[in-house]
Amino acid sequence: MKGWIGIIFFYLTFLFFFPLEGFSQPNFWEEIKTKARGLSNLPFREPRSRLPSWLEKLSYGQWEAIRFDANNSLWREEKLPFEIQFYHLGSIFRVPVTIFEVVHEQEKKIEFLEKSFFYGPSIEKKPIERDIGFAGFSVYSTDWQKKEYCMIAKFLGACFFQGLTCGQIPGITARTIAINTALAEGEEFPFFREFWLVKPKKEDSELELYSIVDSPSITQACRFIILSEGFSTVCKIDTQLFFRSSPKKIGIAPLSAMFEYGENGPKVLSDYRPQVHEADGLLIESATGDWTWSPLENPSRLVVKEIAKGQLLGFGLVQRNRLYDHYQDIHRSFQDMPSAWVQLNSGFLEDGEVELVEVPLKDDLNKNILLFWTPSKTPFAGQSLSFSYSVCWLKGEVPAEGKLGKVISARVDRTKTSQGKTAMLLSFKGELLEENAALGFNPVVHVLSGGELLYATVGWEAQEKTALLEVQIQENGREPLRVEGWLENTGKKLTERWYQELFK
């Protein structure tokens, strides 16, 4: 009897210290949060690149030439509703993320296989003799029209991820968190340390992913539920943050985009393209049901704007201009890039605000716009915060905005600076405007700071079914110009609120 007790004790001890691969976990999300919490109690461990030198020395263009063989996609042979393709390490992507497949709550590490990739002719390839891991992965789903697989999500670099619908190209980028953005001490970039991909069933319409994000200030547990709905791709996110230290600022549900120039400012004369941007404005929905549109800017200096405070329902970066003729870029189809809308669920308190960061940009190779929600109170070391929200990547408008008239362009003329005058021309389109065109519109314009209103007048262009609001303001030159406006009839708002900040 004593012998059997000894054997059982030895076996249980072995399992405790050396758990078998695929050990069943009854509540996977709770296990991920527990692991992230435990990691936060340990000193931060800086990730180190252990790549062969020839991979580290690749240019970005050479790295792009390394392609994953779609025939080796995870779950392809079983013809499941989703499949996964992986990104190779190299060039700027030097830190591997460990990726597990989860089947019946049992995890198994996905090994790197050299034969799963095609290497471009410009690469002087050498043998890879060990498992180097992956830079990230993309999610493919069955196209509801063509019944073919198409990319709907991409997780690659730091804690960045993107979504899109079938037929679109990636544009706006999301992150799991932003830390110390636009502060003098520099931004901190958390990174995906591990991923768990839950194998879907044939009847599933959603894909479930888990991850742990790490950085000197935080660890973060994330659960992603991804579903494709034809004209939109939705990523439902639950996240719990554990703070090692107290960062000065955190950004929740951050979105970033590139905006070089558009209709609201001067174009680059040396560029043949009429407009260059991945989004042309930001949209906010308040708990009162009001909608605010603010055009994006490419400023001459770093600008941080407090856009909205109080209880909010959602915010996003939107690409409203969908005509190829307005971009004329055959390589980057800006008109086909998705808008991104964040629907807030829980954790976003009234004492927070939506903040917009705009960075000067001289080319279209980087993203210079960052939008996020930030709490008013700085988190402290040892604290834990939880948030739940969804990011929806869209082909068109945000459906919830309904029939309200929308700002389709906001042109600004500041050429009369010697006189201190600024002129603006706003174009509004929408069903409510068409329905009330015969009654006329009343313009409501408020100069919140930086000057005083000289006049505001509105006209109706019947052929284009567009309301045109012309505004002229006398600037005082002492502070940034902040202005808002909308159109109404008999006290009823017919359009969203237009809000704009202009800096010298």
Automatic annotation (TrEMBL):
InterPro entries: Gal_mutarotase_sf_dom, GH-type_carb-bd, Glucan_biosyn_MdoG/MdoD, Glucan_biosyn_MdoG_C. Coiled coil: none annotated. Residues 30-499 form the Glucan biosynthesis periplasmic MdoG C-terminal domain. Pfam families: MdoG. It is found in: Periplasm. SUPFAM superfamilies: Galactose mutarotase-like. PANTHER family: GLUCANS BIOSYNTHESIS PROTEIN, GLUCANS BIOSYNTHESIS PROTEIN G. This is Glucan biosynthesis protein D. It comes from Methylacidiphilum kamchatkense Kam1. The lineage of its organism: Bacteria, Pseudomonadati, Verrucomicrobiota, Methylacidiphilae, Methylacidiphilales.
